[in-house]
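Quick one - first record:
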Amino acid sequence: MKPLDPKTKKILSKVTSTVFILRAEREWSQRTLAIKANINYTTIAKTEIGYQCYSLPSLLAITRAFGITLAHLFERAEL
């Protein structure tokens, strides 16, 4: 697999950080978010420690769990 370019890494890092912040604001654990988003909690755990990136379907599920749009997530991430 081709390594990600620096610009892409920066975008993915901002999105991951924003999901973490939104989760922390609600005082949700990784497992709580996973249950609310109907995704595996290891997806959240592995993404937060940098082993993988969120897929588009995962991000859509996460934003629905937060009650926000994908556009709002990107705005919060300052993208």
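second record:
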Amino acid sequence: MADKPKSTVTHEISTRAPDQMGHALWRYRTRSKLSQASLAKSAGLRQATVSKVEKGLGTTELQTIYSVCAALGLELVL
């Protein structure tokens, strides 16, 4: 019997500013019942970095966004 294809759930969130991206990541983190510290550990980052990303503060390296997305099981699609 052939394996069934995995179903994927797609959630699209439009963002045009760092604070919008940060808010979206905050929503996914809190819905996943993760603390900033546990997300940071999974992403290989400091908790303060996760906080900064979620608040949309300053400049954030793209690799940091990818690390946070990967730790949340998200894929960034442009």
